[in-house]
Design brief:
The complex is a heterodimer of chains A (411) and B (260). Chain A is mostly beta strands and 411 residues long. Chain A folds into two domains: 202 residues, Single-stranded right-handed beta-helix, Pectin lyase-like (Pectate Lyase C-like, 3 Solenoid); 149 residues, no CATH class. Chain A has four helices and 39 strands. Chain B has one domain. Helix content of chain B is 85%, strand content 0%. Classes of the chains: A mainly beta (411), B mainly alpha (260). Chains A and B meet through α4 of A and α3, α7, α8, α9 and α10 of B.
Chain lengths: 411, 260
């Protein structure tokens, strides 16, 4: 009998902590998300049914799971921020959020996560936004399967798709970001994993790193952005198996590296970019097994780049393979495949017997006088390139691939 | 004129050189396709070959034909025929037979290789169009040279020099002037410079297709407008047409005044 009493007491005490379902719809007793959050208890689930909810400044200050059924619309009516998460363990799933307010003094976001842990933000569709998902001083969260479609026209009055600021250990996977300023932006954010995202047609960068270390980005596609990926002032970043495509324009790069140290760039494909990789002040980077196909410049080295190594890459049909603006070279090129290599392989070991010089005289001339680009592929240019190849005067004479491959590198 | 055209055309069609020319292109495209195993890459290599070789062969052939058929021309001149129709007929006969060798020689292997199913067909047609234009232009220039010079050796010399100048020396001078005046805005100058040389013009047309990503790297607004839109393509074609019309007109004028 005593045990039974104890059992009942235990159940009564446990009752408040049971997760409950709260449903909201346009005709229910609870018809707004704000009201639902204020009545909910910790660890409750809020189910939002299909409909349009005109709300903004919604603060999620309890560990809740908010799930939308059939993509209910949360319309911020351009008045400001829409959802702000301040509690730990919050899940937001399946909402269609539109009309985030634009401000020049505050970064209004569709969803802002502030100083929280263990959050999950997934299956959202964001449109007509200023900032999309903004993670601020948060950690251990996940941002999965979101679709962010902006309508940015100018850089100064548009925001970023997914922005991380002082946020660590975040997983960003399977997101689709389009037409914003920076697709994904990491500032002071370490140990993040960015995987399988597609970031296209953004005004500035598809993905942007600033002062962020030890991050990995993998299997992403960056297409038709102002510049594909900008990695700046960061250390130990791994860039694996990404695709950089059709980033065209006067200041467009597949990838822009500035002040990057000890990074690893492996298995990426750079296709039809004006500049495949633009490198400035970057040291000890290993470029391995990348494909550079049909770019204007596959790699443009701007200076202050030391002890980088380029090993087993394929340089296919680029207008220029490598461009240097100085005569000093401290980088290693080895065992790459170059389509413009004209040497032979007498001993049939798959490695050309004559070293290859990837820097042409013409690329030096174009660096100096950009208008001369109009003479590209002229017979005269081929002749002067040839004579420079025989006896280098203007290009670094120790810049050689001593073991150029005869057949395309495979891995 | 048509009769003379027909006569020159069939005369050339029977001649060994047309077959050699045809066979050369046939062999070239077969080898390229065989080596590259990729249609679009073969097109790229062909483009490089065409902008150098077609003008050379056009010039040599034009001069050669004129001198070889000189006696026949003199016979025709004795007949009640318009001078312009005699020379235009001969010119068109040469130009058309050369273009045909080019188009068939390149076209047949590519068609067998599956051109119509590939998306390189536009690049390829552009290649053939540019090739034909270059043939028309350089044969006309060659006829002009031959009309001016009675001396065969001199005529050949000038013809080769013309080719050498337009294919190589012009670009060298062009490059020098660009580097010399690099402190000034040069984008207009460089575009005008290309317009003035048919070989450069055809090269630009090809660049617009192939190296567009590199060309868009340059910041000049004029460049961007030229390369970024259909504008460049249109202007280039108009200029090529002008380049055909001018020397042909010159042939007509020269032939009227010339004392045989």
């Amino acid at each position: 009998m005593k045990n039974l009493w104890l059992f009942f007491i235990a159940i009564l005490m446990a009752y408040p902590t049971y997760a409950q379902n709260i449903e909201i719809c346009n005709t229910c007793a609870i018809s707004t998300l704000k009201k639902a959050i204020s009545t909910a208890k910790d660890f409750d689930t809020i189910l939002i049914k299909k409909g349009t909810y005109k709300e903004y400044n919604i603060v999620v200050d309890k560990p809740l799971t908010i799930i939308g059924k059939n993509y209910p619309v949360i319309d911020g009516e351009l008045k400001g921020e829409i959802i702000t998460v301040t509690a730990d363990n919050v899940t937001i799933d399946g909402l269609f959020i539109i009309n985030v307010g634009t401000s020049y003094t505050e970064d209004y976001a569709a969803i802002r996560v502030k100083r929280s842990k263990n959050f999950v933000i997934q299956n959202l569709v964001l449109e007509k936004l200023f900032f999309g998902i903004y993670l601020e001083k948060s950690r251990d969260g996940k941002v999965l399967h979101n679709k962010i479609i902006g309508d940015a026209i100018e850089e100064y009055n548009s925001g970023n798709g997914i922005q991380l600021w002082y946020s660590h250990n975040i997983e960003i996977e399977h997101n689709f970001v389009q037409h914003v300023r920076d697709g994904i932006y990491l500032e002071f954010s370490d140990d993040c994993l960015i995987k399988n995202n597609v970031s296209t047609e953004n005004l500035r960068y598809g993905l942007h790193f600033m002062f962020s270390n030890n991050d990995i980005y993998q299997d992403n596609t960056f297409e038709k952005n102002g510049a594909g990926v900008a990695v700046m002032f960061s250390k130990k970043i791994k860039m694996l198996d990404n695709i950089f495509k059709e980033n065209w324009g006067t200041a467009s790069y597949g990838m822009l590296l500035k002040e990057i140290n000890d990074a690893e760039i492996t298995g990426n494909t750079f296709e039809e970019n004006t500049i495949g990789i633009n490198i400035e002040g970057s040291n000890r980077i290993v470029y391995k097994n990348n494909n550079f196909i049909n770019n204007g410049w596959a790699i443009k080295v701007r200076g202050a780049c030391y002890t980088n190594s380029f090993i087993e890459n394929n340089f296919l049909y680029n207008s220029f393979d490598i461009s240097y603006n100085s005569k000093v070279n401290d980088n290693v090129f080895d065992k790459n495949y170059w389509t413009s290599y004209t040497g032979y392989d007498l001993d049939k070991d798959g490695i050309g017997d004559v070293p290859y010089r990837p820097v042409k005289l013409f690329s030096y001339i174009v660096n100096r006088t950009p208008e001369t680009i109009i003479l590209l592929r002229s017979l005269f240019i081929d002749i002067i390139d040839f004579s420079e190849k025989v006896s280098p005067v203007f290009t670094p004479d120790n810049l050689l691939d001593n073991n150029p491959l005869i057949k395309k590198a495979t891995w | 004129m048509l009769k003379i055209l027909k006569y020159s055309f069939f005369d050339l069609m029977r001649s060994r050189w047309s077959y050699v020319y045809f066979a050369f292109y046939l062999l070239l495209s077969i080898v390229l396709l065989f080596l590259n195993n990729d249609l679009s890459k073969a097109v790229i290599t062909l483009m490089n070959v065409i902008i150098v070789l077609v003008p050379l062969i056009g010039t040599i052939f034009g001069v050669m034909y004129y001198y070889n058929s000189k006696e026949f021309t003199e016979l025709l001149l004795a007949q009640p025929l318009k001078r312009s129709s005699i020379f235009l007929g001969q010119y068109l006969g040469v130009a058309i037979s050369l273009s045909m060798s080019l188009i068939l020689g390149l076209g047949i292997p590519f068609i067998f290789y599956g051109l119509f199913k590939s998306n390189a067909i536009w690049d390829f047609s552009l290649l053939l169009i540019t090739g034909t234009f270059l043939t028309l232009i350089f044969t006309a220039l060659a006829f002009n040279i031959a009309l001016i010079n009675e001396n065969k050796i001199k005529g050949f010399g000038y013809a080769i020099l013309l080719w050498l100048f337009l294919a190589i020396i012009y670009d060298g001078l062009f490059l020098m002037s660009l580097i010399l005046f690099e402190d000034y805005p040069l984008d207009k100058l460089s575009l005008v410079g290309t317009m003035l040389n048919p070989i450069d013009l055809s090269r630009t047309l090809i660049l617009l297709k192939l190296d567009i990503s590199a060309l868009l790297g340059y910041t000049g607004a004029v460049f961007k407008k030229f390369f970024g839109t259909g504008f460049g393509l249109t202007i280039s074609f108009i200029m090529l047409t002008i380049w055909v019309i001018l020397p042909v007109l010159l042939i007509v004028i020269k032939s009227k005044k010339k004392d045989f």
